[in-house]
Design a protein that fits this description.
Oligomer: heterodimer
Shape of chain A: globular
Strand content of chain A: 15-25%
Structural class of chain A: alpha/beta
Strand order of the largest sheet of chain A: 5-4-3-6-7
Largest interface: A-B, 68 and 51 residues
CATH topology of chain B: Aconitase, domain 4
Order of helices and strands of chain B: EHHHEHEHEHEEEHHH
Radius of gyration of chain B: 19 Å
Number of strands of chain B: 7
Helix content of chain A: 25-40%
Strand order of the largest sheet of chain B: 4-3-2-1-5-6-7
CATH superfamily of the largest domain in chain A: Aconitase, domain 3
Distance between the termini of chain A: 75 Å
Number of domains of chain A: 3
Radius of gyration of chain A: 22 Å
Distance between the termini of chain B: 43 Å
Shape of chain B: globular
CATH class of the largest domain in chain A: Alpha Beta
């Protein structure tokens, strides 16, 4: 090859895809893509293992597979006999099924006895298993979370879980590439979640369908890893296949501290390779979008899709279509009413979107020395055992308990609400999770998506509240606020 | 091996609402199952049952449960949200064999095709015509890649990923195809190992 011959410019997504091609895509068949890390949980895996058993095959690479239990698991502690309060015998059996399947297949299980158990998308980055340039799949749509590290990470169905268990590969037609450039300056008191909700609002609920999104720009570069995870996590809420951020020194600093990342010369070599993982300056994206957040303030959703959201200090606008109008009816809101001040019954802080240490710190900063509004229920579920340990070491659990909040065991809890942690019909939940679909947090429940700071502020005020109210003195008046 | 999907003639069931997410198709509290079977009862459960879990008398979907096969004409962006394969399992068990929409969410589409549920995007004008033809039988001819809806709209052709189409027509899932490439996969792994040294 002569020196003049250069390969065409590539996006980061192209690079990762190319380096994992076992067999390229043809007209007749999708590409066969190698998977570096397969994360498994109890809800979307039993039928996959059963499928393998029916064919008499075992997991090809148990060493590249990691399992945990998080979705169906109770977040209340076991009783004095060690019995855990599962929502149903079925939920208990589902967890037992995964424990058994992992034992049979030689798959590492971070279960009840593990100090590393937690929400699947929280624990892999904590352990340092989520590595730049890798392909990561999981039977869970929020797998895009791992894209924060410059991995190509996406959710798959149970049939695909079976395929990955059996072959360590996935069939994939190449999605389109989109770049979302976020420009600032980023205003004070704007959380990663506020940015994620605003990006969704701009993209629309299906605006990312068929695309892998690369988030770029000065705002993204200045984000912490936890904020990048929140941003990438919600890519699926725009319908995107995945979301990712090119690795940089922030990424490398996070990974250097992780227990399962090699040390010394090996780490130096890995980091050098990670630094090459970026889109070429002249790489062409199928779609480019620029999002200016210089005027942004804390956000909250008002409809039943995550993009139906806007600044808390503004009025709720006219619905954009009949679908959004139906969402307004379900939520009991009307165009023209203030977003702020809507009465709240339950506050949930946690999930793979916002269940990490910095999220709990943000909530604690507002809850410290204050009490939640009378009659309001606050559930705080740390994202993992590690998050729980560190939060307790910092005394956050006491801040929450003294404020009147429930400090739970790690798990998905009210985000998917399949473990018994639910809101009643008609109740309004301010939730730091990712979906506000009708009935998502229990039949008839109504969800307002927001940041941990907004959730904490709303817990004290008993109504949706802009967290900037707690930024200075005087203390906001709760009685007047709710009236 | 499932029933091959070569040609299907079945009545249309319309669901005009846009962005029906997988929590509507099957609520999360029913995902504690460890099998694929019997989820038809849970399809659109919270739409067609009251707060006590009793079927709502006169609900259109309750009137047709278990009487399939049907072809679902769904609103734009159908199946958005979670990756739960329980959604196509529930739709199939309810009696749907095909979903036609102007846009279908990525994961739901691949989950559907992996289970023999044809998920197909169609043009907006034809979609509107089909939505107005509740109960009328149409034919989806996968072999000819044509939809015939006499009295509703002229016959029209469609594109479907050739690989997905083959799997549907043979009644197979792609697992066998992947397993057939075991040697290629082993070569890739060997290459990876040598690059790391």
């Amino acid at each position: 090859m002569s020196a003049e011959q250069v390969s065409p410019p590539r996006t980061l997504f192209d690079r990762i895809m190319d380096s994992h091609l076992v067999r390229g895509e043809t007209d007749d068949a999708p590409a066969i893509l190698y998977v570096d890390l397969h994360l498994v949980h109890e809800v979307t895996s039993p039928q996959a293992f059963a499928g393998l058993a029916a064919r008499g095959i075992k997991t090809r690479r148990p060493d590249l597979t990691l399992a945990t239990i998080d979705h169906s698991t109770p977040t209340l502690p076991p009783d004095c006999n060690g019995k855990r309060p599962f929502v149903s015998p079925a939920a208990e059996a589902q967890v037992a099924t995964l424990l058994r399947n992992c034992a049979e297949h030689g798959i590492e299980m971070l279960g009840w006895d593990s100090a590393d158990r937690g929400i699947v998308h929280v624990i892999a980055p904590e352990l340092g298993l989520t590595l730049p340039g890798s392909v990561i799949v999981c039977g869970d749509s929020h797998t895009a979370t791992h894209g924060a590290f410059g991995a190509l990470a996406f959710g798959i169905g149970t049939s695909e879980v079976a395929m990955v268990l059996a072959t360590q590969c996935i069939l994939q037609r190449k999605p389109k590439a989109m770049r979302v450039t976020i420009t600032g300056p980023r205003p004070a008191f704007v959380a990663g979640k506020d940015i994620a909700l605003y990006v969704l609002h701009v993209l629309g609920f299906s605006g990312g369908t068929g695309h892998v999104i690369e988030y770029a720009g000065e705002v993204v570069q200045a984000m912490t890893m936890e904020e990048r995870m929140t941003l990438c996590n919600m890519s699926i809420e725009a319908g995107a296949k995945a979301g990712l951020v090119a690795p940089d020194e922030t990424t490398i600093a996070w990974l250097r501290a992780c227990p399962r990342v090699p040390e010394g010369a090996e780490f130096v070599a890995m980091a050098a390779q990670w630094r090459t993982l970026k889109s070429d300056p002249d790489a062409v994206f199928d779609r480019e979008i620029s999002v200016d957040i210089s005027g942004l303030s804390p956000m909250a959703s008002w409809g039943t899709t995550p993009d139906a959201a806007g600044p808390i200090v503004e009025q709720i606008p006219e619905p954009r279509d009949t679908n959004e109008s139906r969402g307004f009816d379900y939520m009991g809101v009307a165009a023209g009413q203030p977003n702020e001040g809507r009465k709240v019954d339950v506050v949930f802080i946690g999930s793979c979107t916002n269940g990490r240490l910095s999220d709990l710190e943000a909530a604690a900063a507002i809850l410290r020395g204050r009490v939640v509004a009378p009659g309001l229920r606050v559930i705080i579920a740390p994202g993992s055992e590690a998050v729980k340990r560190e939060a307790e070491a910092r005394g956050l659990d006491m801040v929450f308990r003294e404020a009147g909040a429930e400090w739970r065991e790690p798990g998905c809890s009210m985000c998917i609400a399949m473990n018994g942690d639910i809101a009643a019909a008609g109740e309004v939940v301010v939730s730091t999770s990712n979906r506000n679909f009708a009935g998502r947090q229990g039949p008839g429940s109504r969800t307002i998506l927001a940041s941990p700071a907004t959730a904490a502020a709303s817990a004290i005020m008993g109504a949706l509240a802009d967290p900037r109210r707690f930024a200075g003195s005087p203390e906001p008046e709760q009685e007047a606020f709710r009236a | 091996m499932r029933q091959p999907f070569v040609s299907l003639t079945a009545p249309l069931v319309g669901l005009a609402q846009a962005s029906v997410d997988t929590d509507q198709i099957i609520p999360a509290r029913f995902l504690t199952t460890t099998t694929r079977q019997g989820l038809g009862d849970k399809a659109f459960f919270d739409w067609r049952h009251d707060a006590t879990g009793q079927p709502i008398a006169g609900h259109r979907l309750n009137g047709i449960a278990g009487q399939g096969p049907f072809i679902l004409v769904a609103g734009d962006n159908f199946g958005c949200g979670s990756s739960r394969e329980h959604a196509p399992w529930a739709l199939l068990d309810f009696g749907f064999r095909a979903v036609l929409s102007t846009r279908i969410a990525d994961i739901f589409r691949s989950n559907s095709l992996n289970n023999g549920l044809l998920a197909l995007e169609i043009p907006a004008d034809i979609h509107q015509q089909l939505l107005r033809a509740e109960g009328t039988a149409i034919t989806i001819d996968l072999a000819a890649r044509k939809i015939r809806a006499p009295g509703i709209c002229p016959d029209f052709g469609f594109d479907l990923d050739p690989f997905a189409r083959l799997c549907l027509m043979e009644g197979t899932d792609p697992m066998g195809y992947l397993l057939g490439h075991s040697a290629t996969i082993a070569d890739f792994e060997a290459r990876q190992r040598s690059e790391m040294q």
